[in-house]
Amino acid sequence: MPNLNNKVALITGARRGMGRAHALTLAKYGAKVVVTDISQGECQQVVEEINKQGGHALALKLDVTQKDEVAQVFQAAVQKFGRIDVLVNNAGIAEFQSFLIMSEEEWDKTLDINLKGQFLCAQAAAIQMKKQGSGAIVNIASVAMGQQGIGLPNIAHYCASKGGIAALTEALAVELAQFNIRVNCVAPGIIETPMINTVKSDPKTFEAMLAQVPLRRAGKPEEVSELVAFLASDDSSYMTGSVVVIDGGWLAG
Ligand SMILES: NC(=O)c1ccc[n+]([C@@H]2O[C@H](COP(=O)([O-])OP(=O)(O)OC[C@H]3O[C@@H](n4cnc5c(N)ncnc54)[C@H](O)[C@@H]3O)[C@@H](O)[C@H]2O)c1
């Protein structure tokens, strides 16, 4: 079991889905958790669940595309818990659109939330972690990040953003190692969250996707959280710059 006692973790996009599971799991392993998302009310519900488990958490509203808000949230988190040891860059959207009619606005929205958001949060975290002399950043990409043998139609902006996250992870791992800050990336396959509702609404497409997964099922958010907790903990102390796929065997199949 990873030991996250005395660590403070900030998670983006944590009101629901995988972010919520990461918040609960990291708290279960002892971390104090800063639960952030675009809606503070839903973050507060996650905080209450953590409190019930006997953990410590703080809910803060954070739109990851807003630089000023990112600065304020990191400041408030440090004020409350004194430090930031872990950042889980989880916030993301997946909006389907055919490439030939994809608007510049649609492209920018996805890239801003999925990729620029990770840049802004990683920078704010790294500035704090450098002061502390250590830290772990876990970026969430996807098997749709490119160069994996999976090309997904009608979601070019999403795929491009996730490829950017894998590249960002490597670049930051190299640049921040001198400050004892590790940067790794988790690339999930199909995971049971509200994000896949659109795909699930077309049972044939969903079945066809699952048919490519050797384990023949979608993953559970908590299964991904165990990997995130490992990468956040000192158990992964010699890992940095890694992109770890968690996909029920999809890429191997
Ligand atoms: N579910 C999957 O199959 C799957 C597969 C691969 C990767 N992922 C990635 O996992 C991460 C979590 O997704 P999920 O599946 O839990 O989906 P989800 O839609 O349940 O959660 C995404 C969260 O991001 C938040 N968010 C959206 N815009 C934001 C913004 N501007 N600022 C802050 N937060 C914002 C949403 O409010 C939501 O809570 C995403 O990065 C997603 O791309 C998901």
UniProtKB/TrEMBL annotation:
Keywords, ordered alphabetically: Oxidoreductase
PANTHER family xref list: 3-OXOACYL-[ACYL-CARRIER-PROTEIN] REDUCTASE (PTHR42760:SF133), SHORT-CHAIN DEHYDROGENASES/REDUCTASES FAMILY MEMBER (PTHR42760)
A GO MF label: quinone binding
Name of the protein described by the UniProt record: Beta-ketoacyl-ACP reductase
Membership in a protein family: Belongs to the short-chain dehydrogenases/reductases (SDR) family.
Any one biological process term the GO annotation gives: fatty acid biosynthetic process
Transmembrane portions of the chain: none
Pfam families reported for this sequence: adh_short_C2 (PF13561)
Signal peptide per UniProt: none
Domain of life: Bacteria
